[in-house]
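Bumping my old thread because nobody answered last time. Still need a sequence for this structure:
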């Protein structure tokens, strides 16, 4: 049995509480496009997807396809504006840093699979001082986004981990579907954007309610045994 263990984390809604800022950025983008306000309950359903795909799903059915890239640009512009405003915050969830540090100390390989672009990920990780803990950072810049398994497959290729050595941790059905498609153990967390029911529908092997529970699940993880066999 291999002793190698790889934990691949989603970012928004899993490590970082970005619920308010993502909702506000999408609302500003829709207002700028003349589409009116869009609330959190709709925006939360697309978090994790590549941005163009996300705004396509949210836009009205009759919205011109050629204007979808512009709507995505409005979202990115809104985020840049918000980062410059007083009071802007993308805090880590309680227990996130402690969990990451403990796993790194215990010899886990750590990775990221996120719908963010690499520039956005770097801004968040530099702010929180997280880069040094992670061996592989997978973003939508590298190819297909969630729920395609590409990011998890690339993370395993970069670290030498096998599917049976790997855990995907995320708060959305897209994370779970991506992990399942890559053949790894899929652990859902209930504190982010998707509901427990949505995470279950995505294929989560287990769903945890806090970082303490996640830590227990990771302590129990046996490399060489997939979630379906555990």
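Sorry it took so long. Here it is:
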């Amino acid at each position: 049995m291999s002793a190698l263990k790889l934990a691949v984390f989603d970012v928004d809604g899993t490590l970082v509480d970005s619920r308010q800022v993502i909702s506000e950025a999408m609302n500003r983008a829709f207002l700028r496009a003349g589409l009116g306000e869009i609330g959190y309950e709709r925006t939360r359903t697309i978090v994790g997807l590549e941005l163009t795909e996300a705004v396509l799903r949210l836009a009205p059915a009759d919205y011109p396809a050629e204007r979808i890239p512009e709507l995505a640009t409005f979202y990115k512009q809104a985020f840049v504006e918000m980062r410059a405003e007083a009071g802007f915050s993308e805090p880590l969830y309680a227990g996130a840093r402690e969990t990451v540090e403990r796993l790194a100390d215990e010899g886990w390989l750590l990775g990221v699979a996120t719908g963010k672009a690499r520039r956005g990920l770097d801004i968040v990780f530099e702010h929180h001082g997280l880069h040094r803990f992670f061996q592989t950072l997978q973003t939508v810049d590298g190819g297909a986004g969630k729920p395609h398994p590409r990011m998890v497959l690339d993370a395993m290729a970069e670290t030498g981990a096998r599917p049976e050595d790997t855990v995907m941790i995320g708060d959305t059905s897209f994370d779970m579907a991506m992990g399942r498609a890559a053949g790894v153990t899929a652990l859902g967390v209930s504190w982010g954007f998707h509901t427990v029911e949505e995470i279950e529908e995505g294929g989560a092997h287990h769903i945890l309610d806090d970082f303490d529970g996640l830590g227990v699940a990771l302590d129990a993880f046996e490399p060489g045994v997939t979630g379906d066999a555990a």
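The first strand starts at residue 6 and ends at 9. Let me know if any region looks off to you.
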